[in-house]
Amino acid sequence: MTLPITAAILAGGAGTRLGGRDKGLEPLGGKPLVEHVIAALRDVDALLIVANRNHDAYARHARTISDATGKRHGPLAGIAVACAACGTPWLLTVPVDCPQPPADLAARLLQAALAGTAAAVVAHDGATRQPLFALYRRELADSAEQGASMGQGVWAWQDAIGARELDFSDRRQQFHNLNTPDDFAKHVATSRTAG
């Protein structure tokens, strides 16, 4: 079943722990990391990639956009531009550096959103909030843009808009992200062992 959700993969980071290389395009098990993330987002209606470089490479996978200035202002700027480009009632965000987000992430966040009155629902892994794994009403575009222009972080902005946390402690390991060459190597080795 396709959900009334646009998923935005946030790929605007500088990749400093990868020597400045673009994390989403780094190979993982023979294909770019972004392809692993896309594979977990099968139940959404549309897909966006928010990136500030390598647009042509990302555009092979999905519609690719960047923040209005083309400068890195953190993930909240990416959320703002994704909300503005969203053609569905809801926007799901996930970071590009998490190769195996929960397959039921969108469905569970949407169910929680529809059951309550919050304009945003964010995953909590049982230990901490996972602020980049969240579902927003697309009408939050102006609020996100204002927050980003003031230098507000995603967590603080989520607090300000009254985002609700949803328990994903049963999927805690699936929020693991890859930042360094060692992280990539360990993930491949672990996947081979598990397979």
Highlighted features:
two-stranded antiparallel ribbon, about 35% helix, alpha/beta, about 200 residues
Give an overview in words:
With 195 residues, the protein is of the alpha/beta class. It has a single domain (3-194), classed as Spore Coat Polysaccharide Biosynthesis Protein SpsA, Chain A (Alpha-Beta Complex). It contains seven helices and nine strands; from the N terminus they run E-E-E-H-E-H-E-H-E-H-E-E-H-H-E-H. The strands form two sheets. The protein has a seven-stranded mixed β-sheet with strand order 5-4-1-6-8-7-9, sandwiched between helices. Helix 3 runs antiparallel to helix 5 (141-149). The chain is globular, with a radius of gyration of 16 Å.
The top-level CATH class is Alpha Beta
How many β-strand stretches?
A: 9
Cα gyration radius (Å): 16 Å
- Name the CATH architecture: Alpha-Beta Complex
- Tell me what portion of residues adopts beta-strand conformation: 15-25%
How many structural domains are formed by the residues? 1
Placed side by side, the strands forming the largest sheet appear as: 5-4-1-6-8-7-9
Which word captures the global form? globular
SS-based class: alpha/beta
What is the element layout, followed by pairings?
Layout: E1 3-10, E2 27-28, E3 31-32, H1 33-39, E4 44-50, H2 55-59, E5 63-65, H3 75-85, E6 90-95, H4 105-115, E7 120-124, E8 129-137, H5 141-149, H6 154-160, E9 164-167, H7 181-194
Briefly say what this structure is.
This protein has a seven-stranded mixed β-sheet, with helices on both faces. A two-stranded antiparallel sheet has the order 2-3. Strand 4, helix 2 (55-59) and strand 5 form a beta-alpha-beta unit.
